[in-house]
């Protein structure tokens, strides 16, 4: 028993110098840091942390804390001096310092915790921007696949750290985009939801109208991922309300040209997605009509809105649809879609009238229906020709012109467009 006690005491006595030695490394590092000897402080804290189990008490969080602080200072000096070799060695300095600060927090006292939190806040923007840069590289299709995958993983690490430091709406949004690129839709949706909630609860000092696209991304997942059109519409409407409120705030402070453009683009994109959902959800047709009429009041000169409204009304009220297509064309005659869709509508109406004539027993009535059908076919042909002038490489327009020319007995025109179709098909 006595031998065991003596052996234990000997072991303890041997450990004391090691503990004191490791603690002294930290003390020396703190002194070096206070004297601006950051390389020395970084090296000494690194040596101390090589055997963290031999550190004791407050020296443990202090070692991590000053290792992080010294690393950041070494990085700043290298950046100021343009020391490329040192910068290459310190390329992970930001995220490594973040993890050191997090380790320090585990055992730090209240005073040190406050200092660590303040330092972490200082790292928020650099870490966020590094994560954004990596995300942009991951989305750059010009980069090799392995580079993009590596950048995406790097982006996740930095953006998760940024959100942990400060869960702002921007950090949540960027992290959501990263998860979306990683095909983790559930995680992405959670981040987008937190992002919009954070923006609403604590908006930035200056309105950021790009928040429209956080609502947009959230709505996309709801519409196509969750298959919940009503929820998606609610999100889009909420986004428009937030933008309108922020617009009033920006006007009061003096809105810039860039803010004005961001507001208009964001509002138009949110509204456009909303109208697109209404177009595709047939059970919402009555609500869709009311909403389209409201939007037309807001954007009376918007070509796309008139085209979408015409599309909605084709099966509900063809005459209103024709009127909407004609309005769109009057706004911008240089765009093909209005001419093509209007021509298609006239063709459909003509075809219906022609079929009625075929099925009618009274020859006089049938002839009247045929004449009326031909009038619509002529209108269809004229509109399709306008569409062809704008885009002579559209196979759909050319095929429509071949059919209409045949129906109207325009043999030369039919041959001309058949030849154009063969050319496009490579024959």
Structure description:
The structure is a single chain. This protein has 427 residues and is mostly helical. Helix content is 82%, strand content 0%. The chain has 19 helices and no strands. The longest helix is centred in the N-terminal third of the chain and has 33 residues. The N terminus is likely disordered.
pLDDT < 50 runs, ≥5 residues: 1-18
Q: Helical proportion?
A: over 70%
Please trace the helix and strand order, writing H or E for each element: HHHHHHHHHHHHHHHHHHH
Strands, total number: 0
Beta-strand content estimate:
under 5%
Q: Main beta sheet, described?
A: none
Mean pLDDT: 90
Q: For the terminal residues, how far apart are their CA atoms?
A: 102 Å
State Rg.
Answer: 34 Å
How would you sum up the global shape?
A: elongated
Q: How many helix segments?
A: 19
Keywords summarizing the entry:
single chain, 427 residues, mainly alpha, 19 helices, 82% helix, elongated, disordered N terminus
Short description:
It contains 19 helices and no strands. By secondary structure, it is an all-alpha fold.
